[in-house]
Amino acid sequence: MKLIKIIILIITGTWIFAQEKEGVSTSASIGTVTLDGKIYNQVAIRPEIPIGKLGLGLDLYVYFNDEGIYPGNWDFSGGNAFSTLVDKIYYLRWGKPGDNLYFKVGALPSATLGQGILVNNYSNIMEYPQVRRVGLDFKMKLMKQFGIELIHSNFKKTAPGVLATRFSYDPFPRLSLGLSYVTDLDQNQGLSDRDGDGYPDYFDHFPNDGDKYNEAWEIYLENKVFWDGIVPEYEIVDSSLVAAGLNYNSYNSQASDDSDPISALSLDLVFRLSKKTNLYSQFGKLIGATRNETDLGYGIVPIGLSSKFGPINFRGEYRWQKENFLFSYWDQAYDLNRAIVQDGVIVTKESQLYRYGKLQGVFLNMNSSIMDLISLDISYQTMSGKVWDNDSGDSGGLIDDANQTLMGKISLNTRKIAKVDVAEAFYQQSNVTNPFKFEPNETSISGYNLGFEVSAGMTLVYKSRTTYVLADDGKYESVSSMQIETQIKF
User: Fold this and answer.
1) Segments in 227-326 forming alpha helices (H)
2) Fewer CB atoms inside 10 Å of the end CB: C or N, the chain?
């Protein structure tokens, strides 16, 4: 009851402040979410408060079901207080991306480093609200000649998926040089670990208990009858456990103190033809090893063009890459395919780079508002060369084929559509032979958001998203989620 009173007090205070502060917008939502495999009802209030260049977005929420309130989101005990408070800040922003100083802390819908050869359109909210990440997108210009950019995907993890920095220098008014470094300190931390005990949920026999992870070990501790004498935990071997008929946590045998990092370096050069048009070139090199223990490759954009033609923003690049490389390696879906498990073995995105040989082609991007009715954002990459084919030879091999990517988002201007407040759909299909012929992989994302006005100030919103995971049979299975919210605007 004390917790409920505190929550009501916070929400009431925020609502009163929203009425008194000009420019503050506040919405509330009622819906359902799935947490730890259980369905919870959700009640949330989300005020957005502008104070000059400062913007603050809060996300005050309560999850509950017939068993009571979900405790994890309001746990102020021990070392959980800081994490609990941070979770309530959806974002903290200063300025805009084109300003001399801009930063955003919290939710990052889209973050790009430099010209995007390594980090392009990265998002840390692909699993929101089930997974709440707190990231940073920072850009600062110093003395008109020097610039620095930082991207941190999640301060709540010791090894974030994206930790990136870029330094730029303008030797001449129209010319800019940039040097970037990106790293994922441990790809294995991309696996879900709800109880934070260091054992991913896929392997953990007790995924909601941070003190237990191995059923075999728990039985041994309880009975101590399967072996002669007391066997220290890390001396337990598979053969002994199998002989005893115990359910063994296989992660023990592949876990080690060694992390599995991947890093990258890039150089870029930008020449400003005008205020609206840039020519640029960039080079990127991944640092690590594939599944076959071969060195990672590099990619080059010898010529690229970005420009604004009236209502159309356009970007075009000619791309060439060496074996074991992917352009925009850290993309929108990175948190979904950073690490997955197949047949009980951890498979990282890095380990699958052997599938890409020498390739060359073009990348095109266009975003525009058409007659103030429709907003489009479309990206398309088509490259030809060597790609992996599982049916080639005894164990597969590289063959001549295409590697293509299609990403798109369409939104309607609902101000001109009665009773519709939100109408948008999105689609991504990356690194396939033909994105127009749907072949799901771990980068595939599709979904829509639809909001209908049910009364003055109240909107019913449907949020649908479909992603894909690799099953033990080697095929991709769809993972669909539907979230229904009633949003109330004050």
Assistant:
1) 238-244, 251-254
2) N
Distance CA 333, CA 347 (A): 15
- Report if residue 102 sits inside a domain: no
DSSP 488: E
Mean pLDDT lowest among 61-65, 81-85, 194-198, 334-338: 81-85
Per residue in 97-147, pLDDT (tens digit) is: 889 999 999 999 999 999 999 999 999 988 877 788 999 999 999 988 999
Note whether residue 140 is domain-resident: yes
Measured CA to CA in angstroms, residue 33 lies from 41, 62, 98, 477 at distances of 7, 11, 36, 21
**Dist CA 435 CA 428 (whole Å):** 9
Q: Cβ(380)–Cβ(363) under 8 Å?
A: yes
Residue 325: C-alpha distances to residues 114, 282, 338 (Å) = 18, 14, 15
Residues 284 and 349 in one domain: yes
Residue with tokens 């917008």: 25
Q: Summarize the confidence of residues 332-356 as an average pLDDT.
A: 87
Residue corresponding to tokens 């919103």: 461
SS3 351: helix
Going by pLDDT thresholds of 50, 70 and 90, the confidence category of residue 314 is: very high
Which pLDDT value is given to residue 230? 43
Q: Which residues, including other chains, have CB under 8 Å from residue 238's CB and lie 6 or more apart?
A: 248, 253
CA distances from 279 to 305, 312, 326, 379 (A): 5, 17, 22, 19
Residues 371, 427 within the same domain: yes
Name the pairing type of β-strands 445-455 and 54-58.
Answer: unpaired
